[in-house]
From TrEMBL:
The entry's keywords: Cytoplasm, Disulfide bond
Top-level lineage group: Eukaryota
Record protein name field: Similar to Saccharomyces cerevisiae YLL018C-A COX19 Protein required for cytochrome c oxidase assembly, located in the cytosol and mitochondrial intermembrane space
Species this protein is from: Maudiozyma barnettii
Protein task: Required for the assembly of mitochondrial cytochrome c oxidase.
Principal location class: cytoplasm
Keyword Cell membrane on entry: no
Biased composition (Basic and acidic residues): 82-105
Region (Disordered): 1-26, 79-105
Gene Ontology CC terms, in alphabetical order: mitochondrial intermembrane space
Family: Belongs to the COX19 family.
GO biological process: mitochondrial respiratory chain complex IV assembly
Compartments reported by the entry: Cytoplasm
């Protein structure tokens, strides 16, 4: 008996990882940020605490900076934006206001 149900010899075709799956950090480039986040989660009993979310953001930023994941908007990742950071919609709306009301608003 072969270990193949139906005795069909189909070739397995690899599929790319789904969005949200991360390549492994083989070089341990973000291990410090990961450990800080995991320790925080352990301290708060795996609750969604604001301080742990900030550590998660640091970890994800490290992964983005080291090309271990694609860059994405923080809102798409469920995290707050950095202070002073604006999205494209806000910027476009502000430019629209400037056209009609002048830069001084």
């Amino acid at each position: 008996m072969s270990g193949n149900p139906g005795n069909s010899l189909r070739a397995l075709s690899p599929t790319p990882p789904e969005r949200g799956s991360f390549p492994l950090d083989h070089d341990n480039e973000c291990v410090t940020q990961m450990q800080k986040y995991l320790n925080c989660m352990k301290l708060v009993g795996n609750e969604n605490a604001p301080n742990c979310r900030l550590l998660a953001k640091e970890y994800l930023r490290c992964r983005m900076d080291h090309k271990l994941m694609d860059r994405d908007d923080w809102n798409h990742l469920g995290l707050p934006r950095d202070i002073g950071e604006k999205d494209d919609k806000t910027t476009a709306a502000e430019h629209k206001d400037e056209r009609y009301f002048g830069e001084g608003k």
